[in-house]
Amino acid sequence: MAVILFSSRCIRVLVSAALVFIFLSGPGFGQSPGKGDPQSPQGQGVYTPPKGSPERKAILDAVRQVLQRNFQVKAVFKVGYLKVQKGWALLYVNPKSPDGQSQYEPLWALLQKQAEAWKVVALPGVAGEMAEEDMTYGKLLQEVRASFPQAPPGIFPKDPDAIGR
């Protein structure tokens, strides 16, 4: 059995290199703290939960439950927009039946995290508002922002009419 001896200077260099590597390879490297970092869901920045994450699933499941309970629609979603910040989420989805045979109208949903669970607080456009000739997604989301001024402005898209059309 061979024994390798290192000088104290050599050990310090190796430890320093290891610490630098650990720091640089940690979550969020290259990002401002709380900016787009899915590892800090309650951070100050706006982010999109990654596909397959428990948070994304919880948000989509909350919308699914509302559709099933209120409209007797079972749906899977193609997500066109999803932003989360400070316990609020805004998403735009294209729902379809689980077997893919039925397509439903795209929808926006505003959610708030309450008691560790995501709750849908608004489904703008679902009650027929989009049937109005001059109603756009931009106008619809302006109404949502006016109704929920506590929702962080960062989750709202700059040009909602460009999404999904």
List the helices and strands and how they pair.
Layout: H1 8-25, H2 54-71, E1 76-85, E2 88-96, E3 107-114, E4 117-122, H3 137-147
Structure in words:
The chain is of the alpha+beta class. The protein folds into two domains: 7-37; 54-162, Nuclear Transport Factor 2, Chain: A. Helix content is 28%, strand content 20%. The protein is built from three helices and four strands, in the order H-H-E-E-E-E-H. It has helices spanning 8-25, 54-71, 137-147; strands spanning 76-85, 88-96, 107-114, 117-122. Strands 1-2-3-4 form a four-stranded antiparallel sheet, with helices on one face. The longest helix has 18 residues, at 8-25. It is globular. The chain starts with 7 loop residues before the first helix and ends in an 18-residue tail after the last helix.
